[in-house]
Design brief:
With 337 residues, this protein is mostly helical. Helices cover 69% and strands 0% of the residues. The chain has 20 helices and no strands. Helix 2 packs antiparallel against helix 3, helix 7 runs antiparallel to helix 8 and helix 7 runs antiparallel to helix 17. The longest helix has 30 residues. It is elongated and about 70 Å long.
Length: 337
């Protein structure tokens, strides 16, 4: 019981409430949780486990529907479905399916926890999540993180990072970003563009606090215009300036932020392409992006992928993965459009 309530208890439906969504996983029509629970139970009990049925059902249902299936399963089988799935599945398929039994927010919170718990910090995961999520998503992640782990996210992050890198992540977690406005403030756009230039390329060294405050407090549409305007002051665009001015995790964080301000779905498409085509395909990254974005914007990520890489994400998955892992990823991406 504890597991079901722990993972399925909280329901965060207002994820990115202010950003349009482009999900590949949408509510199944004619949904019957009891029928699905019975099919999952049979699939688990089948000799050798019927993975295909588990994949077909759980990738074609939203988190809310999977939660209902888990409750129906528990009523019928008198067992916890998550524990049963854990026992029946293994490897990459198990990782994806268990990820799908969490809400998007719970999944993000759990991935962050995994990146800072134990020896060493997985900065790459931390940067990807904290620098790509909207303020509304970060508010939810902080709340769910506390519910799941009984700890404050910002304190955990502060304890595991240092210097300007820590300051940037903490500024993002304060979620002070302005809401998009219908009024375009050209004076403020010019002022911010100038301030970014004056704090970096124009001087020896970099006034990082100015960069942090502008990038963590201004609305996304405003920043898109600021980066355009910035080019009239600086011989380098914003991303080139970041590479010239700062190094290491701070550089990586600013780059992810700017790429997401300019086109978040393209950022994820590039991450997926790099992860799948790199030597020793970085499965963890592929899993995280597809699981965390399938109810958010994976459809748009797929179209950005095709436009930029000349083949669909689905084709790339077919070429660079195999077996049940390939099937579950394709199930979440939906048909090749």
């Amino acid at each position: 019981m504890a597991l079901v309530s722990e993972f399925l208890g909280q329901l965060s439906l207002n994820i990115g409430a202010h950003e349009p969504t482009f999900p590949t996983v949408v509510p199944a029509m004619d949904f019957d949780p009891d029928r699905d629970a019975a099919r999952v139970e049979t699939a688990i009990k089948t000799k050798g486990v019927d993975e295909q049925t588990i994949i077909d059902i759980l990738t074609q249902r939203t988190y809310v529907q999977r939660r209902d299936i888990a409750f129906a399963y528990e009523r019928k089988a008198k067992k916890d479905m998550i524990s049963a799935l854990k026992g029946a599945l293994s490897g990459s398929l198990e990782t994806v399916i268990l990820g799908l039994m969490k809400s998007t927010t719970q999944y993000d919170a759990t991935e962050i926890r995994g990146s800072i718990k134990g020896l060493g910090t997985d900065e790459e995961t931390l940067i990807e999540i904290l620098c790509s999520r909207s303020s509304h998503e970060l508010v939810e992640i902080k709340k769910v993180y506390k519910e799941l782990f009984k700890k404050e996210l910002d304190k955990d992050v502060a304890g595991d990072t240092s210097g300007n890198f820590a300051k940037l992540l903490l500024a993002l977690m304060q979620t002070k970003r302005a809401e998009p406005s219908s009024v375009v403030d050209y004076e403020k756009i010019d002022e911010d563009a100038r301030a970014l230039y004056d704090a970096g390329v124009k001087i020896k060294g970099t006034d990082v606090p100015t960069w942090i405050s502008i990038m963590s407090e201004r609305s996304v549409p405003h920043l898109q215009k600021v980066f355009q305007r910035y080019k009239s002051y600086s011989p380098y665009d914003m991303q080139e300036s970041i590479v010239k001015e700062v190094k290491g995790d701070l550089q990586r964080s600013f780059l992810v932020l700017v790429q997401c301000f300019e086109n978040k779905q393209l950022y994820f498409a590039k991450r997926l392409n790099e992860a799948m085509k790199s030597k020793g395909a970085k499965e963890k990254i592929v899993t995280r992006i597809i699981v965390s974005r399938c109810e958010v914007d994976l459809k748009k990520i797929c179209s950005e992928y095709k436009a930029n890489f000349g083949q669909s994400l689905q084709q790339t998955i077919m070429e660079h993965s195999k077996g049940d892992y390939q099937k579950v990823l394709l199930g979440l991406c939906g048909p090749d459009q």
